[in-house]
Amino acid sequence: KQAGTADLGQVVADIAAEMAARTDRGEVATYIPQLARVDPARFGLCVTTRDGTVHTGGDADVPFSIQSISKVFTLTIALGLVGDALWRKVGREPSGDPFNSIVQLEHEHGKPRNPFINAGAIAVTDAILAGHQPRETLGEILRFMRHLADDETISIDEDVARSEKATGFRNAALANFMRAHGVVENPVEHTLGVYFHHCAIAMTCRQLAMASRFLAFGGRDPASGHSIVSAERARRINALMLTCGHYDGSGDFAFRVGLPGKSGVGGGIIAVVPNVASIAVWSPGLDKVGNSRLGTIALERLARAMGWSIFGS
Ligand code: GLN
């Protein structure tokens, strides 16, 4: 079959079957017991297309910790609240450093290089808080996720949130350093509390693929008619996912998959094919950079089989 004419449902089923049989999964995140306990053999995949068709494979309806994937959605909320003023607090360049790196903050007066490394996401969370109570802000983030996914059951895993807080010394260091430079403006424990909780949202591949539709389809869901952001804003968020969505593995992800995407240490990845599809994949084993190993391979297969790339057909 020619690239682009393959049967998407069959491709999704084949990839899920292949990935479920593989054992070269990489290591599950171990910095908190709640993530270390997850069954590494889990694999889920979900793809939605323009007309609203949903294709699922494997454990597409099993919830997992979305972790840093939440940063895409908090960025969307923050841009809605403060617009381009956000870029005074956070940059738009890939970091080339690990996701929790602190070194470059010192050189740039506490301004994180991009919204997807931890420091940048903490600064974005701080912009959303803006004097509100953490509970209200968290409620707003959760409502946004439920609205996007059209699913009221999405919730926060409180055990994960508690453990993130109990072990988050490095994130606390980042937040305090940014507070010293005035980039973080709320009480540090408020900002960190909201950050730890939005990382602890649990979602399925199906819910994440649904929630990502606005990024794939010019800021709106063409099937439901829901408008979320302008087409320009969706393009810009996609650009940031392409350049920064996989930390210092972003170049490799663009090379291998060729689509904007965002990973989390729970093993999830969302990716978008502009005007064509939104995708979510989950395999808990991670590569050295902290991105899902089989998740990336699955996206590589999917993109190749369907002829999907933002760099040409
Ligand atoms: N909660 C994690 C942290 O702050 C998120 C990191 C990630 O998913 N890359 O360390």
UniProtKB/TrEMBL annotation:
Under the heading SUPFAM superfamilies, the entry gives: beta-lactamase/transpeptidase-like
Q: Does the keyword Transmembrane apply?
A: no
**Keywords annotated in UniProt:** Acetylation, Hydrolase
Enumerate the residues binding substrate: S68, N118, E164, N171, Y195, Y247, V265
> What GO biological process terms are annotated to this protein in UniProt?
glutamate biosynthetic process; L-glutamine catabolic process
**Coiled-coil spans in chain:** none
Q: Which reaction does it catalyse?
A: L-glutamine + H2O = L-glutamate + NH4(+)
Q: How does it assemble?
A: Homotetramer.
Q: Of which family is this protein a member?
A: Belongs to the glutaminase family.
Query: What NCBIfam families does the annotation carry?
Result: Gln_ase, PRK00971.1-2
Protein name (record):
Glutaminase
The record lists the organism as: Methylobrevis pamukkalensis
